[in-house]
């Protein structure tokens, strides 16, 4: 404990002296504030004083053992700090700057992923709570998702600033996309639906993905080239990424705007039935806006957010039974958006049977 307390106190005080007082952006602020405090310094001094008093009666040989243990503890603490992820480029150690190791890149990715997951959970906690709506509160949901939009844009900025997307070859990106494992039945569904001559439809993919080329190659490898991809794009110089992102679809609102633009273009030729399939928080507005919103492999966050704002999740099979009864009794079956009802499925086979039949 003695070397640990002294090291934490010394390092944090050195760092604290160099920080801008009002800067609250760095992730270690609470750590530094705590360990550079006067209270912590007093704790460190008390432990060292106790160690000194206990060592008075030790022999020279025993003191050597204590010294070795002290140095070993200090080394373990130094090793701990050196393994912490680094999310931005640094000037030290110089050897790493001159020859960035794959391990450093992996560490940065791990850090970005962990930070994204933690901040996303905090974001969700800030907007989910209180009394649940009894029916669809669409405006309340939109306002809540504004917080998600801000979070997603900050996360993308961190990715760009980290430099992890720089230096990627387009050929490697396409190869990675071709090897992407989609949900079981997804690729087969689109392979069949795009070749269905009796179904006059357009097919679009809306994604937060940083790279549209990655998505296009994932589907083209299965012979599906008819899908129009709407996503962010990486920038290239001679087929090598610069590290920047052309930001097109970063938030639920931008995804909804893209969806509405597609609908407006399609409806120039007459009203069309719209089906949206998704499972993430960013899909929620589009799922509700579509005539038929189908939720597959939904995240817990989507269900929590939907429940909070009055969205009804109905298994597709039971929903179809109800619609069939309406058709028999009333002679019509009306699908319309913003009904507050989303249909849930467990596999792409259900979607296939619903849209294409056997």
From TrEMBL:
Signal peptide (UniProt feature, chain positions): none
Organism domain of life: Eukaryota
UniProt-listed InterPro entries: Thiaminase-2/PQQC (IPR004305), Thiamine_Salvage_TenA (IPR050967)
Pfam short name (any one): TENA_THI-4
Domain Thiaminase-2/PQQC: start-end pairs: 1-81
One Gene Ontology cellular component annotation held by this UniProt entry: cytosol
Name assigned to this protein: Thiaminase-2/PQQC domain-containing protein
Organism lineage: Eukaryota, Viridiplantae, Streptophyta, Embryophyta, Tracheophyta
């Amino acid at each position: 404990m003695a070397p640990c307390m002294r090291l934490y106190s010394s390092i944090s005080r050195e760092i604290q002296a160099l920080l801008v007082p009002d800067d609250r952006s760095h992730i270690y602020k609470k750590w530094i504030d705590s360990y550079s405090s006067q209270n912590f310094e007093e704790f460190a001094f008390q432990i060292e004083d106790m160690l000194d008093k206990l060592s008075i009666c030790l022999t020279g040989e025993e003191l050597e053992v204590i010294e070795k243990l002290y140095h070993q503890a200090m080394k373990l603490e130094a090793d701990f700090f050196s393994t912490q992820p680094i999310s931005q480029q640094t000037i030290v150690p110089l050897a790493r700057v001159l020859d960035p190791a794959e391990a450093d890149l992996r560490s940065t990715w791990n850090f970005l992923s962990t930070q994204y997951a933690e901040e996303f959970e905090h974001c969700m906690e800030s907007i989910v709570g209180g009394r649940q709506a009894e029916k669809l509160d669409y405006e309340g949901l939109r306002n809540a998702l504004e917080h998600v939009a801000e979070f997603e844009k900050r996360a993308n900025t961190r990715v760009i600033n980290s430099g992890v997307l720089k230096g990627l070859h387009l050929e490697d990106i396409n190869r990675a996309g071709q090897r992407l494992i989609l949900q079981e039945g997804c690729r087969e569904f689109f392979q069949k639906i795009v070749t269905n001559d009796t179904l006059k439809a357009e097919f679009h993919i809306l994604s937060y993905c940083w790279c549209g080329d990655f998505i296009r190659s994932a589907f083209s490898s299965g012979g599906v080239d008819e899908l129009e991809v709407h996503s962010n794009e990486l920038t290239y110089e001679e087929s090598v990424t610069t590290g920047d992102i052309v930001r097109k679809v970063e938030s639920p609102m931008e995804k909804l705007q893209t969806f509405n633009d597609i609908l407006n273009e399609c409806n120039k030729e007459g009203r069309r039935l719209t089906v949206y399939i998704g499972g993430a928080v960013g899909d929620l507005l589009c799922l509700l806006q579509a005539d038929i919103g189908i939720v597959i492999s939904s995240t817990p966050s989507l269900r929590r957010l939907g429940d909070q704002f009055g969205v009804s999740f109905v298994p597709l099979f039971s929903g179809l039974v109800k619609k069939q009864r309406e058709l028999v009794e009333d002679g019509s079956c009306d699908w319309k958006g913003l009904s507050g009802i989303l249909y849930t499925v467990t596999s792409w086979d259900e979607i296939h049977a619903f849209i294409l039949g056997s």
